[in-house]
Amino acid sequence: MFDYENSPEKELIRRARKGDVKAFSSLYARIYIELYKFALYTTKHEQDAEDAVSEAVITAFEKMTQLKKDESFRSWMFTILCNQCRRILRERKKSGDPMEEMENHTGSTSSGSAENPDYTSAYAVKEAFGALEEEERMIVAFSVFGGYRSEEIGTMLEKKPATVRSKKSRALEKMRRVLDV
Amino acid sequence: MEDNRKNGWEPENGREQANAPEARDGREQNPESSRERETEERLRRAAEGTEIPEALRPEAIEETLEKKKREKQKARFARGARRYGTAAAACLCLAVGIAGVYFLGGEGMSENGSAASGTESAGAAGMASGSSGSAETVAEQSVLPGAESYDEIYEYILGARDYQEIMMNSYSRGGVEDGAIAESAADGGSVYASSQNSGGISHSDTNVRQEGVGEADTVKTDGENLFILTDDTVDIVGIGSEKMEHIAEIQPEEGATVTDIYLENDRLVVLYSKVDYEDGKSGNDGTYLEYTCVDVYDVSDPAAPEKVGGISQSGYYNTMRAKDGYVYVISNFYANVSADREDMSSYIPAVNEKIISSSDIYMPQARMGDQYTVISSFALDAPDEKTDTKAVFGTSGMCYVSGENIYITEALYGENGAEVSQTSVRKLSYEEGKLEGTAQTKVDGHLKDSFCIDEYNGYLRIVATVSPMYEVISDGLLPLARFGEAAGEEDSQSLTGTAEEQETTSLYVLDKELEITGKIEDLAPGESVYSARFMGDTGYFVTFEQVDPLFSVDLSDPEKPQIIGELKIPGFSEYLHPYGEGLLLGIGMDVDEEGMTTEGVKLSMFDISDPSNVQETEKYVIQDTYGMDIYDYRAVFIDVEKNLFGFTTYGEKQKYRIFSYTPGTGFQEEACWDLPTYGNIRGLYAGERFYLVANNTVVSYTLDGFDKVDDIVF
Known about the structure:
The complex is a heterodimer.
Chain A: H1 9-17, H2 21-29, H3 32-43, H4 46-62, H5 73-94, H6 99-102, H7 123-130, H8 134-146, H9 150-157, H10 161-180
Helix pairs in contact in A: 1-2, 3-4, 3-5, 3-8, 4-5, 7-10, 8-10, 9-10
Chain B: H1 2-6, H2 34-46, H3 58-74, H4 87-96, H5 100-107, H6 113-127, H7 134-142, H8 150-170, H9 180-191, E1 214-215, E2 219-221, E3 225-230, E4 233-238, E5 245-250, E6 257-264, E7 267-278, E8 287-298, E9 306-314, E10 316-323, E11 326-334, E12 350-351, E13 354-355, E14 361-362, E15 371-379, E16 388-393, E17 399-401, E18 405-412, E19 422-431, E20 434-444, E21 453-456, E22 459-466, E23 469-473, E24 476-480, H10 490-496, E25 504-510, E26 516-523, E27 528-535, E28 538-544, E29 547-554, E30 562-570, E31 572-578, E32 583-591, E33 598-607, E34 615-622, E35 625-628, E36 637-639, E37 644-651, E38 654-662, E39 666-674, E40 681-686, E41 689-694, E42 697-702, E43 708-713
Parallel strand pairs in B: 14-16
Antiparallel strand pairs in B: 1-10, 2-3, 3-4, 4-5, 6-7, 7-8, 8-9, 10-11, 11-15, 12-13, 15-16, 17-18, 18-19, 19-20, 21-22, 22-25, 23-24, 25-26, 27-28, 28-29, 29-30, 31-32, 32-33, 33-34, 35-37, 36-37, 37-38, 38-39, 40-41, 41-42, 42-43
């Protein structure tokens, strides 16, 4: 029996490229918590985050052959997920969904709509992300949940590393103020 | 650490090269205040309790994907025949471009695949932009037409914009966003990834794809100095004596990301990318434009490099080549498809800040385009002005450069409604800096790397893995079934089953006009190409699923390529290199008999003196390794005359190993060193010493015995 859990990433990628679902899910299992957190704090909405991740997964599985041999599965998934989140946010704006505005009020307590009561431990984080603009949220989420450096974030968002760095700086400062309240 | 010292590898205060995300705290430590890091840590901790929805747990995801797979097997539907190289295919691929697959998906459902062909092509043609008559598109298939005007180019940009909007709308909550996903992901990997003899002291040179065509790399030597790309500077280390000496540092302009360097006859070419912010005349909030820049230095006095010229051009750096004193710089430019007509710099590439003339832009194969491959040339002894520039609109990807031609290839994964992976190939000739587009085509299958495409005696040989494609149609994943390969086997197979979902391997021989003269198809079902090497009239390639067939193919008759040998052994080679008379070296992975687990990096020596009866004469498995750095062939050191080759292996530790080969005795490990960092590792020799370069550290060894001589960190 092939040992999915302990196989090197490259071997799993090779299998996943051939449509091996188990290999793909083993790769996914290694990063899904980070992926979901990234989506959750970027879209600020649980259902949207869930949709974003599952759509990213389907896209990735289907386009697996496009992942280059020497490319990291993780960065690839994050890039696809980031595109999904952007799309969801764009649609939300287009459809005039009021959520974006509502949750943008810094420090506003939950107005009860999309909040899940079980969610208290992460509430402070959510509030802190609520203080940010869309792009700032992505940059911080990439850094905090993806562990990416400004250079790498710059590549994924097509921004200069220096721009990413200064935006991140500003965003973290805003968040610190929210967290310190 | 103990180990490192013993091996003479003393990184001391070596700057940490942070490639992996884990190294987050490495390079950014300085610019970032500790308060920022603390805030990030607080956020990370506080988010630890985040509850993950049931539906996203790996088991649930596995189930979802399995279900999709089953659905697509049930709900299979047929698509028309589309074969490369025929007029029908050309017409279809082009015409279907915009709307084809996305709108025909639903109504194109047909019980019988072969019947759908005609219908679909007619329907698709009707749906596309309308102006594309089939005669015109067929003509476009084989020649590279230049643009008539910027207006014409802008129409294609608008085509790409429409296409993106169509995709957005039809997929408002669907699946695939558009090709840009994969492209941007791919960029991330390649953009930041990444000689010549001058007489005097003998030295090794970059392992190049095509003999006689120079390539840039991260380390170069002239025998007396090492030129090393370190983060964003180029460092020059004198190696004239046993004691190495840091003698100069070149720092390109602020904000530059140096990607490669090239050295020829006292000229050092520094290639780097920079990003400019263009404020939004186009109505957006502004865009970032990426440039590839080239600075040329006179390094006749290596302690005082002097800048003597350079050029810049739009787009991300792709690669460069040098031949006969001319340098060819290749970059990929992505157009902003939402740009206004007047905002030309957003969608027309520029060289030396001047927009490329429309007559120097070759039009896309499809009727839209949003990317270019930009090629400029200049003479090394007159680097201040460009010799020529051409932009190839519509294609960007891996480039193969033969002694006479530049081939730009791009893998197409069902974008044009094709049901198998394809590769577009666009050809430009080059000579003394002059560039001219000569031909283009599209073949089925995608290329594993640049060794899968090779020119010899005017013929282009390609070995490709042909993969069935899937598209997300409404809710399910549906395969784009493959038809028309052989009229006999067709429908029953594709309706019932699995056979046509398998990958196969195809080999093509194309003439100067890129017309197929001969081909072999449907080789090695269920396997994909792992490596290839063409050597004159014979080609070798390895496919793999469980065992490793090393195929030999006789290409002496371009109309009748013939498989003449098939050696089956466990494992597979991922890199093949000619190793002197009648020998071919393979570097790959050993795999157990069932093809289930890899058992380490494997070296194979193949006796190819009789190509129809290839033998694996020696085999060596490197214990406790699971991979090696050979995906960038430049990272492999190989000198057949000195009988030495070296590369990086990954295991519990990252190591650099050097081997030799003796007939009868087999492979011998000559040296093995622990490597302390990630990043670009290169081994090379000059005179009697071997140099191991890892980012900002160099260790020298005797070439005879590999005893440590000196080290330097800068």
